[in-house]
Amino acid sequence: MPSDLPEQRPEPLREHRLREPWLRGIASNAAAPPDVLVRLLDPAAREVWTVLCEERDLPPAVVDAVLAHPERAVRRAFARNPHADPAQRGRLVHDRDSLVRGTLAGGPRLRSGRIRPLPDEVIEALLTAQNDPALNTHVTANEICWELEASRQIPLPFRRRLPEHADPALRVYATYSWGVLTPAQRTALLADPDPVVREAAHGAAHRASHRLDAEAMAAELPEQDGHHRSDLLMNCAVSRRVIEACLAERRNLYELAYNRRTPADAVARLARDPDPEVRAAVAARADIDPALLAELAEDLDEKVRTRARIHPLPRTWAQRDVLDHAVFHSFGCACAIVDGYLEQEGDWYTDRARSEYAPMRRIAATYRLLPAELVEALAADPDPEVRHALACHHPLAPPALVLDSFLTHPPQRPHLMTLPNLPRTGLGHLLDHEDAEVRALAASDVTAAEPPLRLLADPEARVRRAAAASPLLPAELLASLLEDPATAEGAAANPNLPAARLHGLLDRLGVPVLG
Is 118 exposed, middle or buried, given 0-12, 13-18 or 19+ CB atoms closer than 10 A? Predict the structure, then answer.
């Protein structure tokens, strides 16, 4: 996405070294009333617009002010806000600035956490928008559509409803998801009354059939290794000539073993390849011959044996893909969580919860509708990856389990911090933890027997901020902490600061009251 164009800045206000800490603290203060937060939307406080508009939840009155703000930097920051309800962010769908609409389509900048889809009507408006010469076109309507497509804010059920949509533009868009449509939906689109839809459908059908043309794939296959070559070998029909060349050169054998269109005799040869990764890919296939599966279940390599044994026949290719995700995304993964990514019938998930194999139980742990009795069983699972998956995905995961994941898995902490079942109390035993993020969490415990005074001098700034923001601190100490650059930001974020005091700090910084 293009960045904001330079905008005229006012002369900097010279309120010594406490200026930025105070502004950042007030912007993140969860108890700050709307009239205080709205003052931060003035250009005099522009350096904390991201903190205010993107990094926290906002009261409705402040959201209204953000959406009406004349500076697009403010509206773009809110368009990326992962804490805001998607329906609130979606109010920017008709923003006068294409960069704002493009940022909304791109979604929150999440490396971890749950990606929430936009409302259907917002998705529809973005997908059907036209370029308006009266508005700026730093980003075109087509580019905005591709931003939305890449953002993972479009849920799968929405895509599956599009072929029946009254708007022909959205039926055209349905052809872009040709692979998820039913045969009846494809047939209907090919015979659609709108000629533009029919043309798009025939194009999608041609592209799909092209993937089934082994000779066309062979002609397109690049000699150089790379994503395109791998994609063709994993997803398209493969000619005998290509198969024999790969086998002779011992090249791209995993891709051939993965490809559901690789013929059975080639699969049998790959099942006896010296590379265990190739044999494991064969063992995962949905169309594997039972005799070959039994052979691989006794393989000398443990990974191959496990891959053959954990998933009994009959199988589906969708189940193979789900299991691949569980196998390859392990305890160290910080991928964003997408609702509906692992889509199977509920019974299939509940059956996996009872499996003797940990990868299968890990799959079950990602299912948000797993019954409470199975949640209880998986919460005590001997495999740490199963317990961690449950903590990240299931709303009934025990708080102690979520805290354990917070302690043991730093990359997922941004997501875990958003969960209501992460404990915020009873954390006194973690005040001296070696990890600064853990000490900061413990410092925010409002039920502690005493305020976290010793952490006010912690070597880590994030810990000092959390300690200074503790509502357990006495008022007289809070006043002195506000004047110390080492603790000023946390003190300005302290929920015990009255509105009058927050207004007073902004007055000292020269931030005006917005009329």
Answer: buried
Q: Which of 179, 207, 180, 199 is nearest to 189 (CA)?
A: 199
Examine the domain organization and report whether 359 and 459 are in the same domain: no
Helix (H) or strand (E) holding 387: helix 384-393
Same domain, 338 and 385: yes
**In this structure, is residue 417 part of a structural domain?**
no
Residue 9 belongs to some domain of the structure: no
List, in sequence order, every residue forming a beta bridge with 336; answer none if it has no partner: 113
CA-CA distances (angstroms) from residue 196 to 173, 192, 201, 399?
11, 9, 9, 53
Do 196 and 139 lie in a common domain?
no
Instruction: Give the whole-angstrom CA distance, residue 464 versus residue 31.
Output: 19
Alpha-carbon separation of residue 271 from 39, 102, 289, 293 (angstroms): 67, 47, 11, 9
Among 453, 454, 464, 452, CA closest to 492: 464
Is the distance from CB of 279 to CB of 301 less than 8 angstroms?
Answer: yes
Residues 316 and 345 sit within 8 Å (Cβ to Cβ) = no
Cα→Cα distances 423→82, 386, 400, Å: 21, 20, 7
Is 88 within the bounds of a domain?
yes
Do residues 329 and 309 share a domain? no
Cβ-count burial 436-463 (b if 16+ within 10 Å, e if not): bbbbbbbbbbeebeebbeebbebeeebb
Among 306, 317, 295, 389, residue whose Cα is nearest residue 355: 306
DSSP string, 333-349: --PEEETTSS---HHHH
Same domain, 382 and 248: no
- Given 162, 192, 222, the domain boundary residue is 162
> Are residues 254 and 186 part of one domain?
no
Residues 215 and 328: their CA atoms lie apart, in Å, by 32
Are residues 151 and 175 located together in one domain of the fold?
no
- 335 and 267 share one domain: no
DSSP state of 115: E
Full pLDDT tens readout for the chain, 515 residues: 555 544 444 444 444 689 999 999 999 999 999 999 999 999 999 999 999 999 999 999 999 999 999 999 999 999 999 999 999 999 999 999 999 999 999 999 876 667 899 999 999 999 999 887 777 678 899 999 999 999 999 998 999 999 999 999 999 999 999 988 999 999 999 999 999 999 999 999 998 998 899 999 999 999 999 999 999 999 999 999 999 999 999 999 999 999 999 999 999 999 999 999 999 999 999 999 999 999 999 999 999 999 999 999 999 998 898 888 776 655 445 555 554 444 556 788 899 999 999 989 998 998 889 999 999 999 999 999 999 999 999 999 999 999 999 999 999 998 899 899 999 999 999 999 999 999 999 999 999 999 999 999 999 999 999 999 999 999 899 999 999 999 999 999 999 999 999 999 999 999 999 76
Say if 366 falls within a structural domain: yes
Structural domain for 179, as ranges? 163-210
Tally of domains within the chain: 5
